[in-house]
Design goal:
Length: 366
Amino acid sequence: MPWSEGVHEKLARAMRRRDVRRFRELLTAFPENIRDQAGRPCWLINTAREGLVRFARVLVDEFDQDVNEVHPETKWTALMEAAAEGKARVVEWLLDHGAELADDSGYCMALECAALRGMLTVTKVLVERGVDLNAVRTGTNPLMEARKMRNTRVAKYLESAGMRPYYPTPNPAIAHPALRKAITDWYGPIGRWKVVLHEKPLVTLHVTRTGDDGTRMLFTMGLSDTRLAIDDGEVFTELLLRLPGGWQVGNRALANPCMAWPIEGLRRIVKESLAAGTWGHYHVTHFPSDEPLGPNTEMTSWACFVEDERVVYLPDERYCVPRDVVAIHESEAKFLDCWGPHDLECLFLENEVPRVLTPDRPSVVQ
């Protein structure tokens, strides 16, 4: 019989009701529904996520489901799902029934999933099962991910078990081309103009050509060559500042205070960050000022927001998370300090505030 939406819903209902007998009967009668309509594994992933050992046993022992099958879209296995949700019993059951603890390189992605979510019990289970505490993945390891997410208990446990942070050495010769390609893919071709923002280490500023949306992107190159400390971890970043298409950028513009202040703002952020060797906060960093940022605006601060979807995995085993640099008003800066970045971003979305620089933009905080 072909795959059936109705049967799929009945299977889901049986799982919600924890009715193993009905679940088994349905799969026996309708074996095509062992997968979803697109042919992807679903039930073992779901049982791992929900912590349902009895259902996992039925799927693996009676219907020969592969415990190591990778979901084609999420790239996760059942073990990763269970680890991320803190389902220690399922984690142990999967390991006892053939789930691979690590990939071919020896890295345990399930441990990273648990560390990211702060799942201490699962973390202990995986460490006790013998994970390689020295394995790394693209410039990170579970300890660094736990630190980044401020999962202090997990981080302290991993340190006590012998895991150490991994700090790859930046290699600009191979990292910069990868960054330029990412910028081009995201925002279009890069122009020839550039200016030096910082001498040692060298940080330059570039700009894309005007895109179909009528804007162009200023971006730094070289800030990510320096590891900046953040909380208990570190960050590699570059700065992005979106300009209106008509905004002058070039050597002449540098002599015009009404046009040069975004460039000077980026120069200041680079200089202060490198001098301190730190980055304020992962999700947003605030650079306040006592006076307006430029002669044609009333805004007084810069806020650097992160978008986790835009990550550049560099060939020197690091990853760079660029920051959107946004000019904000004093009232918005106070709101940010009081309520945090999430609430300010919600206000921006509610008021349809564009990320493109708009000097005369009114404040969203009244």
